[in-house]
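Practice problem. Given the sequence and the SMILES for 2-acetamido-2-deoxy-beta-D-glucopyranose, write out the predicted structure.
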Amino acid sequence: MLPLIPLLVVQFFLSPTFAVNFLYNSFTGIVNATDLTLINDARFDSSVVRLTNDSNQYSFGRAFYPTKLTMRSSSNSSALSSFSTSFVFSILPTIATSPGFGLAFVLSNTTSPPGALASQYFGIFTDDKVPTVAPLLAVEFDTGRNPEFNDPDDNHIGIDLNSIISETIVTAGYYNSTGGFVPVRMRNGQNIRAWIDFNGTSFEINVTIAPIGVSRPSRPTLSFKNPVIANYVSAEMYVGFSASKTEWIEAQRVLAWSLSNTGVAREINTTNFPLFEPESSSSSLSAGAIAGITVGSVAFVATCATGFYLYWRKSKLKDEEDEIEDWELEYWPHRFSYEELSQATNGFSSEDLLGSGGFGKVYKGTLSNGTEVAVKCVNHDSKQGLREFMAEISSMGRLQHKNLVQMRGWCRKGNQLMLVYDYMPNRSLNTWIFNQPTKLLGWEQRRKVLADVAEGLNYLHHGWDQVVVHRDIKSSNILLDSDMQGRLGDFGLAKLYQHGEVPNTTRVVGTLGYLAPELATVAVPTSSSDVYSYGVVILEVACGRKPIELSASEEETVLIEWVRELYVNGKVGEAADPRIRGQYEAGEMELLLKLGLACCHPDPQRRPTMKDVVALLVGEQAAATPADLLSELATGDRRISGDESEEVAPLNPPV
Ligand SMILES: *[C@@H]1O[C@H](CO)[C@@H](O)[C@H](O)[C@H]1NC(C)=O
Ligand SMILES: *[C@@H]1O[C@H](CO)[C@@H](O)[C@H](O)[C@H]1NC(C)=O
Ligand SMILES: *[C@@H]1O[C@H](CO)[C@@H](O)[C@H](O)[C@H]1NC(C)=O
Ligand SMILES: *[C@@H]1O[C@H](CO)[C@@H](O)[C@H](O)[C@H]1NC(C)=O
Ligand SMILES: *[C@@H]1O[C@H](CO)[C@@H](O)[C@H](O)[C@H]1NC(C)=O
Ligand SMILES: *[C@@H]1O[C@H](CO)[C@@H](O)[C@H](O)[C@H]1NC(C)=O
Ligand SMILES: *[C@@H]1O[C@H](CO)[C@@H](O)[C@H](O)[C@H]1NC(C)=O
Ligand SMILES: *[C@@H]1O[C@H](CO)[C@@H](O)[C@H](O)[C@H]1NC(C)=O
Ligand SMILES: *[C@@H]1O[C@H](CO)[C@@H](O)[C@H](O)[C@H]1NC(C)=O
Ligand SMILES: *[C@@H]1O[C@H](CO)[C@@H](O)[C@H](O)[C@H]1NC(C)=O
Ligand SMILES: *[C@@H]1O[C@H](CO)[C@@H](O)[C@H](O)[C@H]1NC(C)=O
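Answer key:
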């Protein structure tokens, strides 16, 4: 046998079950749907199957064996059929610390699970919690941590029964011959072999993994035994793989696959597999950029702590869903009824969906008196968590400013919280910079929107008796109202703290590319980390480029680094968005870019405050503007040659 064609496909009929027994030791030469059904972005990439497409912001892909496996010999039998499978996979992100999700081995009644999101949850689940019992069973090889789903870490294996919330979860690794647990990192590109044994008589699933080179461990990594499995397995099921991604590139590869429903899956020959390793060049992103990215993880406001959750479980009240609880009465002016919101949004119909993000979905609604609103649905794990969250949110309701998106009210149904905001007809700032070549925002409007946002943020930081840290400033959170006035939205992530008090939150929230570097180490968002994110928005708007552009050349990947380099070399004007050239005076643009860079100073103490920023953008020729200082800050400490010894005085000294 030629070693380079280790492909064997053997199928034959047995009565009454259709026997399946195949071994794809490589995907070379597998070119058509007879061999593998590829859905959406999944594709053959030389000898492997790639599940997602790097160039799409949201991407999902699935690869199924083309014929269904018979899982029940007759419909009145409770027993399921058994199978054994083994495969080799590799998960490799472009940026090691960016968020990613890994991949899932899937047993599904359909190749297109209804409601599956394109962006998250392996491309197979909705973000609803177990809406109906449908036949879908997955083994997740999850490389991201979603605390709201009880994920213990960002490297685990779980059994999912038609829900992203796993029935059981264990950290990835294997038990060696002496019974010691050896962790296995699944997100560094290494080739990992997995074995899954499914016993349909005893309703047991065993999952075992080990890096290539380690022989099959005798004790499985995970063992799940529960008759409930039967509810998620239909008479015939597709079997295969699925994965999804958001803006961060992560290559999920399947290198080999064997399966048998008549015995043990054939051994994969693990010699000669291609190797996938992190590109060394990614380490050349500067320390600041890495730090900015590190904090990562698509963290969510998991306001609930497990402890609270257990506490709540114990002391659970008589009723589950819709009873209004005492504490809810404390909160805030307008509580909408669920029926009211459901009616306003045509039953939360997908036609009224404005968008969906880490938090949940946002719908457009029209109240009975004709007022247009945006309804944001936020899922929550526990009522206790919800209560804390409400305490924060209700304070937010008291914030009023022309440059903030006004919150109108709220509603709770079960663990779902719905927040009602004013509807912003002209969508978010990023769409006017990136998505609409024909309706591009001009220079004057861009500058105006930046000034508006500065005022809104200044109000949050300084206009109130408490400092409100927004924590998720980014261009997609800046909305334009009917007069094209900029308004800061999404206070969902905001957290209040008293002036002078050190906040001790440990949850890092925010969006990669906008996060200040110090959040990597101290994880305490402050008003100056907001200023950093705002600085990124300035650069984004002035340059017409995203904060991190992975498709750009290496020097240009991280916007801040690129602009700063140009600035240090005296060519900052070249960073300006070429599409609005001629609309501004060079000096104005330069000042704005310098301001953006100064806001992104690596040292939080040296960043200007929002007061300084407003003075500069809105003020009357602001005499107070320390223009020289701004120039120095813009270098981010990379002094222009000659003045190395000079100390730069902090613009706003530590309090
Ligand atoms: C595995 O493949 C290599 C070449 O790719 C071959 O030399 C070797 O004999 C194979 N091993 C087995 C057990 O078939
Ligand atoms: C697909 O491949 C099989 C062999 O694997 C071949 O018999 C069949 O003709 C091919 N079909 C098409 C449409 O190319
Ligand atoms: C990724 O998707 C884009 C379209 O969104 C397509 O043009 C491109 O060919 C795809 N890339 C690969 C490698 O399939
Ligand atoms: C299962 O159903 C078939 C007909 O559909 C029937 O002949 C058989 O007796 C049933 N078996 C049991 C155990 O009920
Ligand atoms: C499974 O899919 C088939 C069609 O492929 C459908 O007829 C059947 O109702 C589905 N089963 C369940 C339980 O959804
Ligand atoms: C097994 O793992 C444990 C701890 O992980 C280690 O101490 C032990 O040396 C390992 N045993 C073998 C035989 O590799
Ligand atoms: C799962 O592993 C346990 C413990 O090693 C073993 O007793 C059981 O038979 C295994 N089940 C399957 C389906 O392989
Ligand atoms: C499944 O489990 C049952 C009961 O433990 C056992 O009798 C049977 O041999 C197992 N089947 C397979 C395929 O491992
Ligand atoms: C419509 O109703 C909402 C809430 O009930 C209220 O906030 C808003 O002011 C009303 N608008 C008008 C135009 O009456
Ligand atoms: C902004 O929205 C308002 C109200 O929908 C609309 O009249 C206006 O034309 C929009 N502005 C632009 C520039 O599209
Ligand atoms: C955080 O602050 C709260 C009170 O505001 C306190 O109860 C808690 O112990 C603090 N946690 C840590 C880790 O310091």
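Check your answer against the key. The first strand starts at residue 7 and ends at 13.
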